[in-house]
């Protein structure tokens, strides 16, 4: 057993620490103004660049076309029937467990969707949703897609459960899309 | 018929050495080695395999061609390959072939997610199809019955449903129509497939061709929870698997228990879950206020009930029935005997049966298992109709007779659904089961039978033929009896068991069918007038049976009545006496799910009752199997656990404290009932335990002295009158009427007549008639039945309207509604004419006076 421990040599990891000048007349003045002015150089340089602030909510950030925002449910354009048949595959795929589907049967008098069944209840809890887009991938009928809207805040959690009617309706404001190359 | 004892062999499958019983089918034996062979048509419950779907092709060394694993029995030294190149190519080809006509509507199909076709296509299919021709098309979805939807496009023609219909309930209704590629499943002439066990085909179908209409589009397999439970709608206590979504039961599936239900369910058990969630169900406490039932809070209702019971004191009686658990029975016994000081409590209709009789009947040596019905040498069905009283046993008896050659002998008052399967069937006079048992015991012992045979209303030749058939059948004999047979003289059945030497046989014995689901458990928990928990001596002697309770209530000797899930006006015989009894009683406290006639008119406090998915506790199967109920779904509305309600009442009345949890209460029950000693809730697990098989110190002694037969007077034919017999249909239950899907099966009163009687009375089929016993009347429609015994009219009991419970018999007259109305019209006309004549004479007299 060795009695003395060798002094550890940090080798190349050793760096020199930069220290401020010692207090004194010249050094003190530099400490008071020099470094401050060096910092302000960046500030004044940005002042002349002009305004970068986006005036939200009057002005909105444009999103990429593949941005995954609030979901949309779709209808067939010709027959106006809902594309969703209430198969619940989106609910199965959802990792956040935020989709609830209750299906019902179409009748000749009340035809909602193209298949035998339709979604009587289709709810997405937006406060839980992580916008992963798996529901869109799972949907066998392209009935649900991720839209571009990201303005989903509200005053209480209950209002963040979006119903089928809300998801089928067009959003009130169109979120601007980024132009190509923008 | 001794049970088969196959020897064990070793075979090789995919390089694994696996031990399996000899002659087991390869598809099953492979599972013992953790290897799955895909199957569609194979289902061991349906009997011998047919090899129709070809999905299970495997390569067996030494056999030139691929073999179907479902129909090849495993032999010692067999070498099997399930994933060899040849087998794989064949499996992929079969999947591709089966999918030729199968539509790809999985997102719409109810089977999606739990579909063997999906799973097998994914696991064994090639993932591609070369088939581009149009698929075959049918109109879809069609109603096969009000309960089942059929989608023929999805059918892969595996024959399971058709085989089920022909092999299991033997109703022969489902058939394959047309030939070859044109075949499709249907019924003759397209009439609906309505049968007591039709729902099982939904569960058998390996694709989405047969789906349940009540469950249609309700939930997906990943949105539901499974919960094991037990159906408490009849004594069969079938094990079930509940599909629960959002705390609501949406579907009932079987949970195969070979010793209870053999994996089948009746349609009542399968579809009556709907009654849990209907508006008619009582979900909050009610009290009678100013003659009208009004919903109140729990505190108010409990205070009302406690006050009334305190006033009732030892003049209180109690009845239990329905699906009340053993624990509830135990608490009811404590409430009556220890708190109120009354011993008048019962769980069955009729006169009380003495304690020695109950103890002798519960003797483990005499107890038969349910599976004994399938393997005994002979089964005697005595005074019960399995199809109505314990439906699942109907299938078990058919299975035994069909597959194992069990001799089926039937002695009932009414024609039985099993008659066509039976080796011998005799009819006795209504209500004379005990006399028949005496007569049969005498015939078996070689004693004179004339008196008993006459009292039972049977010919001695028939009786000797039945006795000879029983004697010749073999040693192991099971007597499946309805508990009604105990009404005349409970000793008769024991004498018959003695004459057959049932106590000495392992594979035979007695199996009693009580009238209510947990009849046996309630009795063993102490809800019987002359026995405490465990058929011991009661804490308080001098209790009266149900019939005597009714008489004493009607005479005012008893003043209060506690009803645990039973309405005597609906469920017990002599409804008129009960009607008077309830009207006279000052207090009627009831636990109920539905407002049945007696409660609607007379209950003073009603507590909402739980349904079996909401309950926690234990129940006892008629063969002594203690089974455990667990909470599967949330209580509807304001419903509270019934044992807690009973415990609260006991506490408020100053009784001993009740254990604080359901588990502790069950343990208290196992302590109180000596022969349940050694049971634990964890030991019961999901399958239950039969206490007659437990090696606990048995407190039931063998000492039973046979007494002299007590025979009633023979029933004499009366001119222009018929004897009246009653029966309860499988569909006579408030749950059936309340379930939207089953409501179409709700029975209406019909009177079954033999053709000769109908001719003599000049009645036609389906004619509206009035049946009268001189004082009370019941309206019904005539049904002519070829198998109906002449001289007897059969009517349904326990109907909400026109139930035969009101008739006292034994004789009734039958007249057409038309003739009764004509008579009434004639009476009115005569009355009017008389009144007119009177006014005329008066007018004349007045005129004379004036002049």
Layout of helices and strands:
The complex is a heterodimer of chains A (182) and B (851).
Chain A: H1 25-47, E1 71-73, H2 89-93, E2 99-105, E3 117-125, H3 134-138, E4 144-146, E5 161-162, H4 164-168
Antiparallel strand pairs in A: 1-4, 2-3, 3-5
Chain B: E1 8-13, E2 16-21, H1 26-32, E3 57-60, E4 67-68, E5 79-81, H2 85-98, H3 116-124, E6 142-145, E7 148-150, H4 160-167, E8 174-177, E9 184-187, H5 200-204, E10 210-212, E11 225-230, E12 239-245, E13 248-254, H6 267-271, E14 286-289, E15 292-295, H7 298-312, E16 316-320, H8 326-340, E17 344-346, H9 355-361, H10 372-375, E18 378-382, H11 386-389, H12 392-403, E19 407-412, E20 424-427, H13 433-445, H14 450-456, H15 460-473, E21 477-482, H16 491-500, E22 509-513, H17 519-524, H18 546-555, E23 560-564, H19 568-571, H20 575-584, E24 587-592, H21 597-602, E25 605-608, E26 617-620, E27 625-629, H22 642-652, H23 662-672, H24 681-684, E28 689-690, E29 722-727, H25 734-738, E30 750-753, H26 755-760, E31 768-772, E32 777-784, E33 792-796, E34 811-816, H27 817-850
Parallel strand pairs in B: 1-5, 16-17, 16-23, 18-19, 18-21, 19-20, 21-22, 23-24, 24-25, 29-33, 30-32
Antiparallel strand pairs in B: 1-2, 3-4, 3-5, 6-7, 7-10, 8-9, 11-12, 12-13, 14-15, 14-25, 26-27, 27-28, 29-34, 31-32, 31-34
Helix pairs in contact in B: 8-22, 13-14, 13-15, 13-16, 18-20
Concise structural overview:
Chain A is an alpha+beta fold.
Rg over CA atoms of chain B: 30 Å
User: Structural class of the secondary structure composition of chain A?
Assistant: alpha+beta
State the helix count of chain A. Answer: 4
Backbone shape of chain A:
elongated
Gross geometry of chain B: globular
Average predicted local confidence, pLDDT of chain A: 88
Provide the structure class of chain B.
alpha/beta
**How large a portion of the residues of chain A is in β-strands, by DSSP E?**
5-15%
Strand order, sheet with most strands of chain B = 15-14-25-24-23-16-17
What is the second-level CATH architecture of the domain at 286-349 and 519-697 in chain B?
Answer: 3-Layer(aba) Sandwich
The poorly predicted ranges of chain A are none
DSSP strand tally of chain B: 34
Q: Helical proportion of chain A?
A: 10-25%
Q: What characterizes the major β-sheet of chain B?
A: 7 strands, mixed
**How many domains make up the 3D coordinates of chain A?**
2
How much of the sequence lies in strands of chain B comes to: 15-25%
Q: Count of helical segments of chain B?
A: 27
Distance between the termini of chain A: 69 Å
The CATH class of the domain at 286-349 and 519-697 in chain B turns out to be: Alpha Beta
- Computed over alpha carbons, the radius of gyration of chain A is 30 Å
CATH architect. name of the largest domain in chain A = 2-Layer Sandwich
